[in-house]
Amino acid sequence: MKVRKINCPYCNIMMKYIGTKRIQLGKSGLIFEHLDQWASGALTVSIYECPECAKLEFFRFKKTKRKKDDTVTNI
Question: Hey, where are the domains in the chain?
Fold first, then answer.
């Protein structure tokens, strides 16, 4: 996975990569709460945080497929 180098739109300093998480989609209800969430699914996102103002940025996580000629090297 490639970590993006982005600046906070408010502070203009480098944002810190927090990690990749699955965020549950759907609304919260009293009677059919679990059914609504199950039907809505989840979205995998990469999360970045500004160390100055705590602004969060979310990016849709996409797995990249390795090409056949790509090799893995251990450093």
Answer: 16-60
Q: Is 48 exposed, middle or buried (0-12, 13-18, 19+ CB in 10 A)?
A: buried
Please, are residues 20 and 63 in contact by the beta-carbon 8 Å criterion? no
Q: What is the pLDDT of residues 12-69, one digit of tens each?
A: 999 999 999 988 876 655 555 555 445 567 889 999 999 999 999 999 987 665 555 5
At CB < 8 A and 24+ separation, what contacts does 56-61 make?
Answer: 57/6, 57/15, 58/23, 59/4, 61/1, 61/20
Q: Are 23 and 43 in contact (CB under 8 A)?
A: yes
